[in-house]
Design a protein that fits this description.
It contains 14 helices and 8 strands. With 352 residues, it is an alpha+beta fold. The protein binds iron/sulfur cluster.
């Protein structure tokens, strides 16, 4: 063990034992549950994940329960967490684990990496936390801690991640790896925060180069945020207290989720023009009148969507099939939807 590890690991571990949050996935070493928590926590905050994790692990007790569920049910359970590809990968992975590995999550890196959704981070997290194997992991919190420890005054890039990984690989202790990795993550979340890090409370401040130089808040350097704004016009068609929804294609953005018909407003179009064009293209129907109902704003990672909803009057008859349904107010919960559409449904249920 290097001298760095001799000092860092015990200080981190001692702090973790006293200062870590009691989170539901920290009460288990079941690799299935740790896997689910790690996937949920990618791109999503801890307070948001807690109720989803609790419900998921009640609804799907083991990997076999996930493999045996329909994709539609899995997507419904995921609704609101976003990045639905994560849920699709969990479903694919669960089926593979059941078929090929007798429902046991493999405990070696090479095999895990062949399973859908097990990138280097997820594989390393499951191996270290569930199996206590020696795999460094780099997530946003750990990257920030190490960049500050070493005073790497750069933007977070793939090369920086390689450098962070190489450093962790050098200093990682031989034992109690699960605590070491989780302590680094927790330090990043609670103390070495993105803005206003709490350096006075930090157990490793004596070894932190950024702290010594007073440059911790400049690390990592920020990337310029590009937020695009997209206007979408959607049609709400009502018939005998039921509303028409349709399923998105099985591939591409928000694949397989249910939504109201409509689409992006093109440059130079009014919202009503876009709505009429989209409904003609998608369903072959002509909308006679469209009355504005509400606007729903929703933020995705790289863009903001303004969903303009119109109550549509059309004489066309729309039939149901596998991908098209008339749904009553109390039935929407059965259909997995993008978060923006789910907000619109709530508005309908509260107001119409
Ligand atoms: Fe982060 Fe401050 Fe600790 Fe350095 S001293 S690791 S900047 S919290």
């Amino acid at each position: 063990m290097t001298s760095d590890a001799k000092q860092l690991a015990p200080a981190l571990n001692a702090w973790y034992v006293k200062g870590a949050r009691d989170l539901p996935w920290r009460r288990t070493r079941d690799p299935y549950k740790i896997w689910i928590s790690e996937v949920m926590l990618q791109q999503t905050t801890v307070p948001t994940v807690i109720p989803y994790y609790k419900k998921w692990t009640q609804d799907y007790l083991t990997v076999k329960h996930v493999a045996g569920a329909s994709l539609e049910r899995i997507l419904k359970s995921w609704q609101g967490l976003g990045y639905y590809q994560r849920a699709r990968n969990i479903h694919k992975a669960a089926k593979l684990i059941v078929e090929k590995y007798s429902a046991r999550i493999p405990d070696d890196y090479e095999t895990l990496r062949t399973i859908p959704g097990f990138g280097p981070y997820t594989a390393g997290a499951v191996l270290s936390i569930a199996f206590d194997k020696r795999y460094p992991i780099v997530d946003a919190n750990i990257r920030r801690v190490v960049m500050r420890l070493l005073a790497i005054k750069k933007q977070a890039t793939a090369q920086v991640d390689k450098d962070v990984y190489a450093y962790l690989d050098k200093i990682m202790p031989k034992r109690n790896l699960r605590t070491f990795n989780q302590a680094l993550m927790e330090l990043g979340a609670l103390v070495c925060k993105n803005k206003e890090p709490l350096c006075s409370m930090c157990p490793i401040k004596d070894r932190c180069k950024a702290f010594k130089r007073g440059i911790q808040e400049l690390i990592p350097q920020r990337k310029e945020k590009l937020t695009h704004e997209i206007d979408v016009a959607v049609g709400i068609m009502e018939r005998s207290d039921k509303f028409f929804i349709q399923k998105r294609p099985p591939k591409g953005l928000l694949a397989g989720l249910w939504e109201f018909p409509g689409g992006k407003v093109k440059k130079g179009e009014t919202h009503r023009q876009a709505l009429k064009r989209e409904l003609k293209e998608e369903l072959g129907i002509t909308v006679k009148d469209a009355a504005f109902l509400t606007r729903i704003k929703h933020f995705y990672t790289k863009y903001k969507v303004n969903l303009y909803a119109y109550l549509c009057n059309t004489e066309a008859v729309l039939f149901e099939d596998r991908n098209k349904k008339w749904v009553g107010k109390g039935e929407f919960f059965r259909y997995p939807m993008p978060s923006g559409t789910a907000k619109l449904v709530k508005h309908l249920e509260d107001t119409l």
